[in-house]
Amino acid sequence: MKEDYGLEQKLSNITLGSKGASRSLDLEGIGKITKDSSGWTKLEPEVNSTDEDEASTYSLKSEAGNFECSVSGLRWVCQDKVSFKYQFCSSEEPMKRMEMMRYMPAGPLIDITVISGKLSEVYLPHWICIDDIPNILQKFAVLHIDDCGDVVEKVSEVTSSHVKLCEPVFSPRAPLVKKDFPVKIHCNVLIYSKAYASCTVLHVYLTPFDPALKETIDKKKKDFRFIEKPCPNEGLTMQQDFNLTADITAEICPEKITLTNDSQEKQHSIFFDVGFENPDSNFHLTLSQLNNGEPQLPPVWSCVIRKVELRNSGDSDVKETGGQPSVTGPLDLEHSSDEMHGVASIKTTKERLLKKLEDLRQEEFNRFNSCQTSAQDPKLKDNQLENTAEEETQWMNTDPESEQGDIFLVLNKLSFSECWMKMIITIAIF
């Protein structure tokens, strides 16, 4: 068994390093390899997720240099080639034990496994705003879960976004911060959207800047579309209440949310539920801190929700009761109802024409049947082609935004006098 020294003695040798660059955690990634002004080269990991109920595994390889994972913000320094993987771990049980020691989580619990090579330095991401923290040397620590249980270790460096491990020996680890003073944290506002035939629902989360929590919520919201928006510019105070408003008529529940550092298991069920009729224009969401129940100015965060973000947000034509596609307007060829249900986008001309045929109004479909009949009846063929030629002139002047104009854009490369027949005959051949 390792000898268990008192926490103050464990932390007595913490040294504070340079504050470094401002936080550059990028949850979505911006490519395979990118380099930012802080001198850290961002790498996008390979993600392996075999079971949606289990944590994903993130694999990374690098040459010698200074690197940062674009998903977690984990940083490492190596002198030669290295390969490793990591997973986010549930922090609920470990953090219950840490609360008894007057600590709370300051970053995600990450389990790192080195496959080949050696990591010279490792920096764990944290979400604590350190600018106003006095005596910071005594505030931070690292939880290390090994075969002997929980060990609280010192950190060798603290920056505005990371804590440095003294010895990069790996097992589940997470940065900690003491609970004996008011804490501000870097936050995320996560927005998930689901559209129906007549209304749209948003689920809006206010969370710590925690990539592990985002991974958990993403899996819970797999039937929703994630709408990415910037984070609040300033740190927000823990245990404060916040409310959300919209500049359109909307039902928002609950009236307020308390910003906490609770476990992932609790936080994924705490969000603003926003419901409104499908809007005709863009609108704004605004997040404000409450003081004695009243919103404070200026607001801590605001964003614009664009109409196009909602139109492309998933099951936009799925009725709330039936669950089946219900066409309520012209088909968007780039976002078909198949795509709304997770099927790959319709790419080929044949697929698009077939989908258009399925969604035509009955009157237009009858015109197709009429054309097909005339193709088989020589007596009707000449009259039908003459009528179709007249229609061609009308269609040329059709408003592109109308339903007929939408169809015309698909068919404009065909000889119009034969297009009605060619569509049906071509699809039948295929």
Description:
With 430 residues, the chain is an alpha+beta fold. The protein has three domains: 7-178, Chondroitinase Ac, Chain A, domain 3; 184-311, Sandwich (Immunoglobulin-like), CATH 2.60.40; 337-429, no CATH class. 24% of the residues lie in helices and 30% in strands. It has helices spanning 7-11, 92-99, 211-220, 264-267, 307-311, 337-340, 349-359, 362-376, 378-396, 403-411, 416-429, and strands at residues 33-35, 41-43, 46-48, 57-62, 65-69, 75-78, 82-88, 103-105, 110-116, 121-125, 140-146, 149-153, 155-158, 162-165, 173-178, 184-185, 187-195, 199-208, 225-227, 236-237, 241-246, 251-253, 257-258, 272-277, 283-291, 294-295, 301-305. Helix 8 (362-376) crosses helix 9 and helix 8 (362-376) crosses helix 11 (416-429). The longest helix has 19 residues, at 378-396. The relative contact order is 0.09. InterPro entries: FIIND_dom, NLRP_Inflammasome. Keywords: Cytoplasm, Immunity, Innate immunity. This is FIIND domain-containing protein.
Index terms:
11 helices; Immunoglobulin-like; 3 domains; seven-stranded mixed β-sheet; alpha+beta; single chain; five-stranded antiparallel β-sheet; 430 residues; Chondroitinase Ac, Chain A, domain 3; 24% helix; disordered N terminus
